[in-house]
Amino acid sequence: MTKTKDKNTEEQILMAAKDVFQTKGMDGARMQEIADKAGINKAMLHYYYRSKQLLFEAVFKNAFSLLAPQLNKILNDNSSIEDKVKNFSSNYISFIIKHPYLPNFIIQELNRNPDFIKNIQENNSILNIDKFKAQVALEVEQGILKPTKGDQLFINILALNIFPFVAKPLVKAFVKTDDQGFKKLMEQRKTEVSEFIIHSIKQH
Amino acid sequence: MTKTKDKNTEEQILMAAKDVFQTKGMDGARMQEIADKAGINKAMLHYYYRSKQLLFEAVFKNAFSLLAPQLNKILNDNSSIEDKVKNFSSNYISFIIKHPYLPNFIIQELNRNPDFIKNIQENNSILNIDKFKAQVALEVEQGILKPTKGDQLFINILALNIFPFVAKPLVKAFVKTDDQGFKKLMEQRKTEVSEFIIHSIKQH
DNA sequence: ATCTTTGCTAACCAAATGGTTAAACTTTAT
DNA sequence: ATAAAGTTTAACCATTTGGTTAGCAAAGAT
């Protein structure tokens, strides 16, 4: 066998699986559909990944490992809270526009099986808001920020950035717009969200 | 047959179905599990609701009809934006603590089948943000609010209130807390969220 | 009392689905 | 060239699953 062909099939499968799992979820996904999309025999899925469960986990870990660095930007770099908020909101929204099914996939599957988060925390050491909380406390003390609780602020940042994508059908219905209009709305939010947050927490 | 027994079985089924569908989703739910939970024979599910799809739709419409009035509070009553935000945040969070699976269920299933939203808009006439947007524009003009886009504000209000429940496993992991601590955090948010929003948009 | 309608169950069915196997084909090593 | 190892497929299998059926049981109507 050629090493290249090898990798190709295995990766083909992973890509197809990603496609199907992210749109249909674990329960809705069909092995046959993944095989068809990868252009191979169904037995190959088991040859490379043993079972649906393991293939799913491969896809899930892959997805999460894309998201984690985004979150780390806000948790563990050294810029000011204001800069973090600005950068994160802009970057994150750009990121999701490129991977639209990702947040929903992760949230849906974490709700289906909350134990997954344990696996993740073991592999992804740095998902820790302690530093962020300490920094918020410090900037509050320094009079840069109004009195603000770090964990609530973090939840708010995530909420404002992630929610619209997770609830996309709902948002589209309320704002009465199509995919085009939705994308425009999200582009607006790249600056809108950070301004909204900064206005709320910055001392003036 | 007694008319009461009649109603009882049908409702028993709906309650069991609600339970199973809301935790497992359409694809993960099993008719047998619903029957077991309702304490009846599987054939009864079809006797009363014909098919899994129709039973699911009954549950879904039921769930949405619980949520809709909550949203209407913020869209179509006559209080000021500030009061709306305060009331909505407090009421909505109380409401969800009582129905914890609801937002996730609705969002998950709307993503699975975006056409559902059409059915809903036909039955639930008043899911319309026009009045809210007009009110925001007016209060901006009057100098009560800073320049603010109505639709973005509405998205933000939803995001801040709904997201933590949808992403509960994620939030729990980040904040490193259990169900107790999560609930406390959400109780805090009843006032926290509205203050956060008001601080951001109110002219001072 | 008995006849009809309605509620309910056990047993059954066909299709779908995740997974396996045996054999063929390819590539690599000797 | 040939053997060994890795890759791929068609056919198959057992189980699960949504759904049906035929008949029993209970209640209401006559």
Automatic annotation (TrEMBL), chains A, B:
* Protein known as: Transcriptional regulator, TetR family
- Which Gene3D superfamilies does the annotation name? Tetracycline Repressor, domain 2
Which residues are in coiled coils?
none
PROSITE patterns named among the record's database cross-references: HTH_TETR_2
DNA-binding interval(s): 30-49
Segments forming domain HTH tetR-type: 7-67
* PANTHER family (alphabetical): HTH-TYPE TRANSCRIPTIONAL REPRESSOR SCO4008, TRANSCRIPTIONAL REPRESSOR
What molecular function terms (GO) are annotated for this protein?
DNA binding
Question: What InterPro entries has UniProt attached to this entry?
Answer: Homeodomain-like_sf, HTH-type_TetR-like_transc_reg, HTH_TetR, Tet_transcr_reg_TetR-rel_C_sf
Write out the entry's keywords from A to Z: DNA-binding
